[in-house]
Amino acid sequence: MKTIRQNVTYLRKESEVNARRMHKIRSKEMYRDRERHVNKTYMQSLRAARVFDQREKLLNQQRMQQLRRNRQYTQKESVARSANLASRHTSSFELLQKQFWQTISVGPEYICCMCDQLWYKQSVVSAESLKTEHSSNLSSPESKQWVCRTCNQYIHSGKIPPLSKANNTTMPSIPPELHLHSLEERLVALRTPFMQIRELPRGRQMSMKGNVVNVPADVTNTVKMLPKRMDESHTIPVKFKRKLSYNHSVVSQNVRPKKVFDAANWLVTNSQLYKEEGVTLLQTWPDTLQTMEQDWREFVDIDGIDSTSITNEQQQQNELTDAETEMEPDSDDEWTEVINEDSQPSGSLDTMLTPEFTTEGSLAHCFAPSEGNHPLGLFQDKYCEELAFPTLFCGQPRNKNNVKVHYSEVCKWELRHKDRRFAKCVPNIFFKAKKLQINQIQQKVTLSLRKKKLEGKKLTAKDFKDIQRVQEILSLDEGFRVFRTLRGSPPYWENAKKELFAMIRQLGIPTWFMSFSAAETQWVHLLKILGRTLQNKEFTDSDILNMTWQEKSDLIQSDPVTCSRHFDYSVHRFISDVMQSSYHPVGHIIDYFYRVEFQQRGSPHIHMLAWIKDAPQYGSATNEQVVSFVDKYVLCNKPPSSVNNSVKLQSHSHAKTCRKKRQGVCRFGFPLPPVPRTMILTPASDSNQENGNESIPVLYKRIKEYLDGLKLADDVTTTFEEMLQILDMTEDQYVHAIRWSLTADKLFLKRSPSEIRVNAYNKPLLETWKANMDIQYVLDPYACAMYIVSYISKGQRGMSNLMQRATKEARDGNHDIKQRVRHIGNKFLNHVELSAQEAVYLVLQMSLRKATRQFVFINTSPPEDRTVLLKPLKFIQELPDDSTHVECMGLIKKYAARPKVLENYCLADFAAWFDVSTSKSKSIGTQDADEIENEDDPLTEESATEHSIESENEHATCYTVGALTFKKRNKAKIIRYVRFNEGKDPEKYYREQLMLFVPWRYETDILSSFTSYQDRYNSLEMTIKEKEAEYNHNSDALDSALESLENTHEELHSDIAPNSEHANEQDRLEKQKTAKEDGPQGVYDIGQRHWHNSEQCEYRRVT
Fold first, then answer.
1. What are the Basic and acidic residues biased-composition ranges (predicted)?
2. Tell me, what's the pLDDT at 1000?
3. Helices then strands, each counted (H, E), the chain
């Protein structure tokens, strides 16, 4: 071969053959992968030798230096590098978007084989290796069996999962006889849960106002009064009333008498609870021979409805509504630009409280099966829920469990179950939410009886063994603040506001304020999930496109559980997978806080504050740096076509709600003035400057008139320069006129005259979220505190004042603490309004607010003014008479008991950086005061693993002293404290500063050898201020804003999130009209179990 290869021709042919052979071999992907692996391994072995590695790097460096001496090459390299970087970032973010859309395209569809609940994929693990007797054979996505993390944890611990079939947690099968419509179910139910339920504007979602009143019903007489000799297809119109003499009905519907009788007969025959209630039916009822007219007139109060009188009554109501509304009703008002909002009616004429049979000559059968009966408490009546909803429970009590399961856990299980009967029953969701709220209020009553200001006294266990003495001791009145952990209540949001203030103090002012709304009817992925969950159908994109608005609304209305869960899931994934991704679409987020608010149409949206790493702050950075930063992330261009077709995005259209005090001024600030570039403008007060004979106010008026004249539908092509020519003014005059209209510094985005109605947005987030959003740069701490914090922490209008009045009423009356707390709780329950999705949030305990930091309150009051939490009386009474261990252990006692190694930690650092736990098994008797006082929203089980606030640190520093374990945190908590005023109470102020920022072991050490706290503070002033600076930023501005916050008018909120508020106000107006048409309703006292309204007085007080 050596001789042959000396022939050049042969050698060339051999090379060609080898090249063709290798080309053919390398066409196979398996060979290529193997070859790459071999080459990679070979090069790694070579580079392991330091000499080879250094020589290779040197040769590469010399080669690149030689190439870069060519200027043309250097320019090409720079262009290529920039293009590659931009392309890689764009394509990568597009990939990220697709991954996010793919993630949220799958809903809670994974069935746990142990508890039969529906979960998201990250909340389940494969059950292939799970061998249990009670697991089901059902397969969910990916044709596998899954087990939820909760059940899996119990199984691996050798325990029975409480919600599994092994613990007898099952649902009865629904027989064909119980497939009833809503009113048919009411006629056979032994309990009537009276509620005010009505449809909300835009979307037909349901809401409930007030409390649930549980009244026994007489099924025997109701069934007896039904018309006879009817087959299953025949229907009759029925009005369901509280009392037959009332004109107003609770609900009206067509019912099938034969179906009602068959259902009642099945329940009487098969239901354990119906048998215990002693219900009997006349079994010969279907065979009774009577004429139809005889049937209808013998037993029933038949309303012959006069259409003329109804028309007159409706006209009077409409006149009253028009006279009372603040908005001008003219249909031809040029101000209103919103035409056919969502292309569908608001639902104001179709409520659960409005009779539907209004045609002349119609005969409606009136039933009032609960008339004359006494209301029963929801906890007094053990099986009230099972008897109120026989189509859900089939007349059977819930199964008795071997392992005790709390009612709140049972509610979650029922709503998340693969059998969607509970998730689709909106009245039952409201029932559960109210029952849970009542239970929470009763717990607050119990908790309020365990709080006491000791006022320097030492109490012993003996003091609590005399019942009369206990009543004298337990007298702390916290008013409505006791409800600060009652989710959704005004004190709850007031506490959230304080926590957010503390977060701003400790972290500095946030960078962005953002809002994100839901767009259920526009979210194709959600409609597909609902199709699979409710109808077991796989909708295609074309199916969704061809759906009517009514069909989409029906899907959304039918399963508020899936809708709310998926919004919560989407928010979590959007923040973690998109906003906090390495692409940083709004900058590197290091901290955030958000709350969930429910719009007037019943859907959730979030308001969010985000802190961005290295973001320029207005005041400390230059205006140019701030403007450059904002321009990088925020736009107000016309929405991109890629998303404009799927949602009505950022463009504002005037509606009646826009009018500010009936003037021709948009309360949301539109149209926004065009500016040639992004700029920060400050107020100008010199209104005497003239342009010829015109003053600045005249110029501003001319600008406003011109902008107001540019209608939304106009195809505006005018440039900014052309606009100035039309206005006959220079750019300086134009800017000065805009400044004259300001009362505070304001950032204006670059915008052309064609974009004066476009709200600000972030393009990557808008395209990814596919629903309306707001985004604003936070200019200064005062504005942030005054408007944004106030907006984020707002509650239902008027509810806070209502609870404050209730507190005053309770204090003025001769009531004990227990009665006062219950009185305030009654006010809240009887007036609060819940949408169906909000009720789901409450029942499933999904987070209504979330932050990247935890919060801790340090009670810096003197010991005699400090509220302590006493142990439960049953534990105190077991103590020796002379024992003083009657209090739960709080933060200050834990600090005093810290290990020696933490001796130099001040109280603020200790509270911020350490978690303290006890090695004893947790029980109500040993529970810490801080755990009760700082209790907050628990994370949902489905998201607890992935969205925990503090990641577990296996290598965290831990110290143990007795039964206490001190664990160092990865991220500091946000601390709150009393914040005494230096001018009003100087000694308490100085004591507080020393207590927080100077180490001490006993509280008596704080004063040390000094005669006053001020003297000791002065001796340590520099040290204290240095430490305080770690926890206090912009303190003066925040204090000033806090003092002014109580006087903040809600109209100022319109400037914070104009997109969200604009839609919300339109829905609010429509809902107010609906409420006036429905008329007044009664309220119910959960403690006394009676109505407070002249029309509802047939339910007599139970003594």
1. 1062-1079
2. 97
3. 41, 31
Residue 753's CB: how many other CB atoms inside 10 A? Answer: 20
pLDDT of residue 830: 80
Beta bridge partners of 964: 918, 961
- pLDDT tens, position by position, 9-20: 877 888 888 888
Residue with tokens 């440039």, as numbered in its chain: 719
**Tokens at residue 581, please?**
């991704």
Nearest to 184 by CA among 212, 213, 226: 226
Q: What is the pLDDT of residue 885?
A: 75
Three-state DSSP state, 318: helix
Cis peptide bond prior to 161, omega within 30° of 0: no
Three-state SS at 210: strand
Rg of the chain's alpha carbons, rounded to an integer? 35
Structure tokens belonging to residue 802: 């209502």
Asked whether the beta carbons of 823 and 524 are under 8 A apart, the reply is no
pLDDT of residue 793: 67
Angle at 471 between CA 467 and CA 472, to 5 degrees: 120
Task: In whole angstroms, give the CA distance from residue 566 to residue 104.
Answer: 8
Residue 1044 pLDDT exceeds 80: no
d(CA 377, CA 384): 9
Instruction: Please write down the long-range contacts of 708-713, taking CB distance under 8 Å and 24 or more positions apart.
Output: 708/664, 708/671, 710/671, 710/753, 710/756, 711/337, 712/337, 712/651, 712/652, 712/653, 712/654, 712/757, 713/337
Question: For all residues of the chain together, what is the average pLDDT?
Answer: 78
| H-only helix segments in 914-1050 | 929-933, 986-997, 1013-1019, 1021-1028, 1035-1045
* More confident: 348 or 667: 667
If 0-12 CB within 10 Å is exposed, 13-18 middle and 19+ buried, where does residue 609 land?
Answer: buried
- Rounded (5°) CA angle 600-602-606: 85
| pLDDT per residue as tens digits for the range 309-362 | 333 434 443 433 333 334 444 444 444 444 444 444 333 333 333 334 444 335
Q: Exposure string (b/e) for 448-482, b if CB count within 10 Å is 16 or more?
A: bbbbbebeeeebbbbbbeeeeebeebbeebbbbeb
**Please, are residues 498 and 481 in contact by the beta-carbon 8 Å criterion?**
no
Name the token pair of 824.
């305030």
